[in-house]
Input
Amino acid sequence: MHFIFLGPPGAGKGTQAKIISKEFKIAHLSTGEILRSMSLKETKTGKTLRNIISQGLLVSDDLITGVVEERILFEDCINGFVLDGFPRTLIQAESLETILKKRNISINNVFEMNVKEEILIKRISGRQVCEKCKKIYNKFFDPFPTNGCFDCGGKKITIRADDDEDAFKNVRLKKYNQETKPLVKYYNEKKLLKSLDGDSPPEEISKKIIEIIKNTK
Output
């Protein structure tokens, strides 16, 4: 089983990818987590990533594709994987297809999370992260408890600079619409795309995804 989740920041890709990973016992491959873990390794790729990250540079299409290609060879991917945050561009999507073909791997479904812009803005600009355990809260929907984090009891939160409303609308959302949105057409033409209402409660979305997967031949 091999799946891809598409959607702008705040659409709930990570949440659903984790649920599907657990439900079907396959690996959850989050691009951010892959890059962080690979950058800690004493390999050529690890050293290159550390250098790029330390300089605040963007990871090239070739490098991120190479990192993903290396990651899918890990033992936890034997039964399948869920890609969360990759591919982000048409070039990456085409490279991924080439990589998978070499290994006789096919993508079963590509799930697109559709969420209204005003909801995305609230999800992102309202995000609060527990400094201690990294649990995510939201000041609009699920505010950080006044007596501390439910999971660890931590008392402090952090807020990412790029979670600012203007930064989100003018940089992150704009970048998604320019670079990643075209993948919707790409995967739709391959008859792999399944569009989902990302405004629905997470448990309803999960139920729908699981139903689609079980009914896909």
Remarks:
- The domain at 2-116+179-215 is CATH 3.40.50.300 (Rossmann fold).
- The CA atoms of residues 168 and 174 lie 8 Å apart.
- The mean pLDDT is 92.
- The first helix runs from residue 13 to 24.
